[in-house]
From TrEMBL:
Belongs to the RuvA family. The RuvA-RuvB-RuvC complex processes Holliday junction (HJ) DNA during genetic recombination and DNA repair, while the RuvA-RuvB complex plays an important role in the rescue of blocked DNA replication forks via replication fork reversal (RFR). RuvA specifically binds to HJ cruciform DNA, conferring on it an open structure. The RuvB hexamer acts as an ATP-dependent pump, pulling dsDNA into and through the RuvAB complex. HJ branch migration allows RuvC to scan DNA until it finds its consensus sequence, where it cleaves and resolves the cruciform DNA. The keyword ATP-binding applies. Residues 64-83, 99-118 form the Helix-hairpin-helix DNA-binding motif class domain. SMART domains: HhH1 (SM00278). Has three domains with a flexible linker between the domains II and III and assumes an 'L' shape. Domain III is highly mobile and contacts RuvB. One of its GO terms (biological process) is DNA repair. InterPro entries: DNA_helicase_Holl-junc_RuvA_I, Hlx-hairpin-Hlx_DNA-bd_motif, NA-bd_OB-fold, RuvA, RuvA_2-like, RuvA_C, RuvA_C_sf. Keywords: ATP-binding, Cytoplasm, DNA damage, DNA recombination, DNA repair, DNA-binding, Helicase, Hydrolase, Nucleotide-binding. GO terms for cellular component: cytoplasm; Holliday junction helicase complex; Holliday junction resolvase complex. This is Holliday junction branch migration complex subunit RuvA.
Length: 200
């Protein structure tokens, strides 16, 4: 990977740098100079060709289902996967829980209900779709912070309790922000515990 900025990473493929839109957790976990594998889809518009990349085939499949719903564009689809895992999307649909989708910026009540209606019967629910961290913050946020910390070099055993503590202490306004929670968690962990795995 060549660089990461916000929710965009630049990946070198055959000597060419390609800009790929990803979730904040994926961008935060990526390391400059290290290999990054993503499952991508190309969204073709009249004025642009835009790549979207995901850590797993399940995320890509859910993204494509979401963007097939009227009123849900690529930006909103990526936004859903920034706060909800594929399992959590499936659980929300199975439970007729449109409130889960209303937490995503740009998705209103009507679109949220349409997502549930459109995806009903298209997603499988697994036992992993209701993690403990989901009780403390909007679904997927805690998991995204944990994934980012693991990607930055901490073990899950060390990082998980810090994430739970951070979520418990954070204000309501901060619990929906991966970036804010990650910064708070990093402050608790401290630089001395972080070992960088490679050079940029």
């Amino acid at each position: 990977m060549l660089s990461a900025l916000g929710s965009t990473v630049i990946i070198e493929v055959g000597g060419v740098g390609l800009a790929v839109n990803v979730t904040p957790a994926t961008a935060l976990a990526a390391r400059i100079g290290q290999e990054l594998r993503l499952h991508t889809t190309l969204v073709v518009r009249e004025d642009a060709l835009t790549l979207y990349g995901f850590d797993s085939p399940d995320e890509l499949a859910v993204f494509e289902l979401l963007t097939g719903v009227t009123g849900v564009g690529p930006k909103s689809g990526l936004g859903v996967l920034a706060v909800l895992s594929p399992d959590q999307v499936a659980r929300a649909v199975a439970d007729d829980d449109d409130a889960a989708f209303r937490k995503v910026s740009g998705i209103g009540p009507k679109t949220a209900k349409l997502i549930v209606l459109s995806l009903t019967g298209k997603l499988a629910v697994t036992a992993a779709s209701a993690p403990a961290l989901g009780r403390l913050a909007p679904a997927g946020v805690g998991e995204s912070v944990l994934a980012a910390l693991v990607g930055l070099g901490w073990s899950e055993k060390v990082a998980a309790p810090v994430v739970e503590q951070t979520l418990a202490e954070a204000g309501d306004a901060d619990k929906g922000s991966v970036a804010v929670l990650l910064r708070l968690a990093l402050g608790k962990l401290g630089p001395a515990q972080h070992t960088i795995g490679g050079r940029a």
